[in-house]
Design brief:
By secondary structure, the chain is an alpha+beta fold. The protein has one domain. It has a four-stranded antiparallel beta sheet with strand order 1-2-3-4. The radius of gyration is 15 Å and the shape is globular. It starts with a strand and ends in a 7-residue tail after the last helix. 29% of the residues are buried.
Amino acid sequence: MTTTVGGLEVAREDGGKLQVTVVLSRLAFEGLTSGTDVPATAAMEGALRCYLGDRGSERPAWPYPDFLRGSETEKDAPIELELDPELWREFEEEAGRQGVSVEQLAEHAAFYFAAELDAGRVTQRILDDLESGEGGARG
């Protein structure tokens, strides 16, 4: 079964994962994937996890910017994901809390993650997780 929400397409697989197609602007896609060998699918899932992981961090760049509300960008870079349903549910709920579409928040999460990568904070999180024995990255 496939559900289309705005430009997003969501389908449940038998294995419990959700198939989600997120369509970003070319600029967001390039920000997410430039300078890395990580596939766009892994980078986008990382962006969703990183973004949700920083909820409550009080970072000024975290919430969806007020000045962008109501604006739309041209979406022309689809990314097909297989996600844990709980991750997607949390992301949809966060979009609702912020009063924006899931598409808008996905675009923002991609930019947010790209900025985190550029600042080196994602690498530091991975190192911190390894040192604490968690063995997995938060974002």
